[in-house]
Design goal:
The chain is an alpha+beta fold. The protein contains 11 helices and 7 strands. The two termini are 41 Å apart.
């Protein structure tokens, strides 16, 4: 048996005969009214769009989202992105090695979890320390926080990706805040911890990565704000007095504005120093992670340039000579 070819190793015009995890299946009409099948195919190295022309209901109902399928076809680039043109797709009934398909963070989960607790334990404001403790003691939520991805396609799109992203963002925030004394370090760190916590409910990630129904209808910003209100209520009950209203409002604003602009999904633009810092640092971590993944990709490994990446709006220069010279 020939060794498996992972998605991260594929280039253009390669014959494909592999097993993938399938999701997001759709049967669509083209402009002529003919049906085609579109799916998302994944393994532990990433995911790719699969297209099957001249499909029908029989093909569509052969498998369900979350199944393993054997795909025959050919890889190609379209608008700068790799995709697979499918000639055959069938469900796989024999046992598969699930480690080939579940992408996980390369970093140590326990170590990242301890670092989050350490950074939150260093908060100076008593109310924020109490709030952080309430979140950290929520065993069910923290279990989902450790397992969740940060996205399903773009940055940190693998199990444990949310925790990895949050640790990285908190580390950057901890270093940047002292350079700007008017930025409240405690608020910025707490905002970095809270900003994407709603993704634990927005996304499903038991096998394939997808949006939950509530995630599609409500979204992680509103879900995160709801989690914050619930834990503020718990802290108030334990303390026997109300949580400071403006402090709660500032925390909610950090969640509500972290996408930065209305067209990118923020219900509010950042309007405090901490919210502005959080937005740019969040974007920095997400973009540099995408850059790292693209530079490390085995697509066109002998080229000085990476393929065009739509999420970045560019291709990247790898270089023609070693930077170690």
């Amino acid at each position: 048996m020939s060794p498996r070819r992972y998605i991260g190793e594929l280039g253009a015009n390669e014959a494909i005969d592999e097993v993938f995890l399938v999701s997001q299946k759709q049967l669509r009409p083209n402009r002529a009214g003919n049906l085609y099948l579109q799916v998302r195919l994944s393994d532990r190295t990433g995911s790719v769009t699969g297209m099957m022309w001249n499909a029908n209901d029989r093909v569509y109902h052969r498998f369900e989202d979350g199944d393993y399928v054997r795909v025959e076809g050919k890889s190609q680039f379209y608008n700068g992105a790799l995709q697979i043109i499918i000639s055959e797709i069938e469900p796989v009934h024999e046992e598969v090695d699930e480690s080939d398909f579940v992408a996980v963070s390369p970093k140590d989960t326990a170590q990242m979890r301890r670092r989050v607790a350490e950074l939150l334990g260093g908060l100076e404001r008593p109310w924020l320390r109490r709030l952080a403790e309430s979140f950290l003691q929520d065993i069910d939520l923290m279990g989902r926080f450790e397992a969740a991805p940060a996205g399903i396609k773009l940055h940190h799109a693998y199990r444990g990706g949310l925790l990895e992203h949050v640790v990285s963002l908190m580390e950057v925030a901890d270093r940047v805040a002292p350079l700007y004394p008017f930025v409240d370090r405690d608020l910025l760190l707490m905002g970095a911890f809270l900003h994407d916590l709603g993704k634990t409910e927005e996304l499903s990630y038991e096998r394939d990565l997808a949006y939950s129904d509530e995630g599609q209808l409500v979204g992680h910003i509103l879900q995160g704000a709801a989690l914050l209100r619930e834990h503020v209520r718990r802290v108030e009950e334990a303390a026997g007095e109300p949580f400071p209203a403006e402090l709660r409002m500032r925390l909610e604003h950090l969640i509500a504005s972290h996408h930065g602009s209305l067209e990118f999904g923020s219900p509010k633009v950042p309007m405090t120093p901490e919210a502005i810092a959080l937005h740019f640092l969040d974007n920095l971590d997400a973009k540099l992670h995408a850059v790292q993944q693209l530079l490390a990709s085995e697509v066109n490994p002998d080229s000085a340039w990476t393929p065009y990446e739509p999420s970045l709006g560019r291709k990247l220069f790898r270089g023609r000579e070693s930077s170690q010279q």
